[in-house]
Specification:
Blueprint: H1 2-6, H2 17-41, H3 49-59, H4 61-64, H5 71-99, H6 105-126, H7 140-171
């Protein structure tokens, strides 16, 4: 038991940045699909509501007040969403690797869930001060979505990092 407890102390171990980028991208896609489904099914809104709110981060608050289809808005929303997903995937990997939270699937997914919760609080409470159009998106659907984002990113990082590590060992 003592050995396991000591294994999560800080260690100067660099993350696998390639795995982190891919994990953030995949988890961003998972969250995007969930947002699309929940927006249309639970909120009764158009599928373009969330893309308008995301694109408004870059394009300005007036975009958040409209909900019609626009290729420019959807394009900006996709790029913004994936860039943020990748950035958050990199941050998650930067936490997981030095503390060896990627030592097991269970630990990785648990850390991912905590990361998703913190990300939800950051996005819908702290960042909502700068982007107030996100306040009306607070609630269970987005909390669950962010928990799933964190767990998906952690799972993908764990899986991809393990596969790359195995490939490196096999090559030796």
């Amino acid at each position: 038991m003592e050995l396991h407890m000591r294994s999560h102390r800080w260690d100067a171990r660099a993350p696998d940045w390639t795995a982190a980028v891919a994990a953030g991208f995949v988890a961003g896609a998972v969250l995007m699909v969930l947002e699309l489904l929940w927006t249309t099914n639970l909120m009764g809104a158009t599928p373009w509501t969330i893309p308008h709110k995301i694109a408004a981060i870059v394009m300005g608050p007036e975009v958040a007040r409209t909900h019609d289809f626009s290729i420019a808005v959807v394009g900006v929303a996709l790029v913004t969403h994936y860039v943020l997903g990748i950035v958050f995937g990199l941050i998650l990997a930067a936490v997981m690797a030095p503390f060896r939270f990627d030592s097991s699937l269970g630990m990785a997914v648990a850390v991912g869930a905590v990361f998703g919760l913190l990300l939800y609080l950051l996005n819908f409470y702290a960042m909502a001060r700068a982007f107030p159009w996100f306040i009306d998106l607070r609630g269970w659907p987005n909390l669950i979505g962010h928990l799933i984002f964190g767990m998906s990113a952690a799972f993908m990082y764990w899986k991809l990092e393990g596969a790359r590590s195995s490939a490196r060992i096999d090559a030796l």
